[in-house]
Amino acid sequence: MTREKFEKLVNKLEVKARENPKWYRAQVVAFAGLAYVYIWLFLLLFSALFIGLAVDWWVNGKWSLGRINAMITSGVLIYFIIRAMMVRAEMPDGVELTREEAPGLFETLDELKERMKAPEIHKVLVDEDFNASVMQYSTYMLFGRKQHILKVGFPLLLTLSPEQMKSVLAHELAHVSHADTKLGARIYRLGSSMEQLLKSLEKNDEKLGTWIFRPFFRWFVPRFSAWSFVMRRTEEYRADAKAAEMTSPQVAGEALIHIHVKRHWYSETFMGDHVLDEVRKNGSVTGLFSLYLERMQQVPDEEWEKILKMSLAEDTDLTDTHPSLRERLEALGVTPALPEPVKRTSLETFMEDPDQWLAGFNHLWDKIYGDDVRSAVRYHDTLEQLFEHLRDKKERTPRETADLVMLMLKRNGPGAALNLLRETPEKVREAFEFGKVHMILANVLVQSGRVEEAVPLIETAVRQDWEVREDGLRFLGEWYEKQGDEENIRRIAKERDGWRNYLVKTDDEIEDFKNPKRWKPADLPEAAINSLVEDFMEWDTVDALFLVELELSRGEPQRSHYVLGVVHDYSEMGMRDIMRAMKAFDEWMENEWESSLPVTVLDLTNEEKLLDEIVEIEDSLIFCREEDDEEEEEEAEEHIRA
Q1: Domain 393-511: assigned CATH number
Q2: Given the DSSP bridges, would you call strands 132-137 and 95-96 parallel, antiparallel or unpaired?
């Protein structure tokens, strides 16, 4: 399902959910039941087939290659289904809070639990996030003893008053009251299991009969995601209403405003400029949360008002199940206004020894993130040096000019970056390197409410960079539709249809990535290649890396895709160590590694013919773990062949 179809489905379902919430929830349950019926039907079917063949083999001694293949296939399919249903859940991180350490917090939870008829909260965890959440945890997604885990972010305790914090806690407990989370948790676990099963099926390709399941799950997973997405968003409104009932609409609204405004300042300003300055000054930040309290009190009201205005301008979208701040306040009947400063924090009220907790979290944050922050400062200083170098350079390439605009945005804000962009000759701005620059600046303008200024930038971006074209065309279509501009509506619709056809065609070509006839030298900046090399050279088994570009059909803008060939050296390892190394590398590739490039990784370790082909591509070898650093490239290629 395309993103556009997903969005249309969500919008349609939201109308249905508003008209009759109870009936909608029943439909979600029925939809979930369809997956359970499908899973258990096939599980029983293949189990019966496996057991029947095994018993017949044992009793009558009849066997054949066909029977063995049928047993193996049914066994593998049973394994896929059971593994999907046994997705292991991780206990959330955080410092566990006891009743003795936070008597005020637990008294508030006890009061809310009694008034709301909420179930037991088994654990309360405190972490460094500027958020609060509740989850129903079990060791295995669909199986195991269920526990309700409440997480409270330490920054919230420093930001909200006790009454505002009570509203937040009531919101979270509302998710475990009246069967909301019981149903929601089952829906979430089912969705996770279905995604895991689809992932296994896609990874297994066409082997061992898994094609039987693939059509159903390709149809079910995106539609179920849309139905459950709407249900979770509806529950957010219900939780807000319950929070207002337990405190007052005004208090619930103040809590929402405080969280949106202070969290934005915390992440965008405090964790940026303030923390960087502190590290430069003292070499580290040993008291991050104490510093937050101090600097937060120094922020003028004008700054808070500016952030509030920006937060209220944001619309609800598909990136989050939570509605926008504006819509949540409207649902509560609260007029948006900056709340009075908090005189006594939740930390001071709820904790037995607030100073000890403050000192403890200061130390914990520095222990976990201190080295990363110091590295970030060094990186920031390097960018500053690069900015000065590019700014003072008399002649710059299009790539260098694009980098300078982005550095200007980061350093001086959108106004300065836009001025620099306008000063850049139009011929330079037409280079494809400026596609993402135009799109990023446009997003900044949209977020600040300057949509009309953003539209020309997006129009330019979608002609330059294929990676931003889909999102850009969708935004333009929605904008022109709001304006009632029929001519541009038709133009954008035609461009989107043509672009989708082009993507489908090139997707098929990318599937043919093992075809050497499609390989050509990769035209990439040295920095991008070095980034790939740095990621993979950390693995001792990686002996060589090759990079080529796929020859794709011509498009406007041109789509690009790359193939990264990896050669492993297991020659000095035993079989058990080889299996462990392969598993660790595969898990890293699947769960941790991310690349900003559109790239497919191809294991060439046992692909002698493909290795011979890729070696012949000019400049394809980008890394070789040579014993002698002085070896020439030709000798390195011979080493890889050997």
Answers
A1: 1.25.40.10
A2: unpaired
